[in-house]
Design goal:
Blueprint (H helix, E strand, L loop, with lengths): L5 H26 L8 H46 L7 H11 L1 H41 L1
Length: 146
Amino acid sequence: MSSITEDKLKKIENLLITERKDWSGKIQSLVGTIDKAHKIAKSQTLMLSYRHMIVDKIIELNILLGKKRANDANYKKMRYQYYKTQHDVRLQHSEIMEYIASDMSLRIRETSLIENQISYYKQANETLDKMGFAIKNRVILATNDI
């Protein structure tokens, strides 16, 4: 049947939660530094570095998601073929599709976890972009005061 189990899914979920907490902490600590004029250069450097690292993570997860969707499509095809030709009871198309949806429930949850992580990373990048504008405005205000 499915290569993913409830335990494996829980481990993935915990890993992604830990990663989100880690990135949230990094971004929150960075936000606290942009109001200090002597730390703006470091804040800007970290912000750009974090942004690049997050873009890399998004790309990695998109590649993983592409592979996973291809595997899921193949699995769905194999399950359809099984229910159509080898299952003990003759099933209608709609029944076969319900059985397949049930067979794929953990796979669908795994895909959802990855998609949510990608969404989180995109939102984190938007936050970092907004921080870039905040830093720029802070520098402009500081030079106007001189």
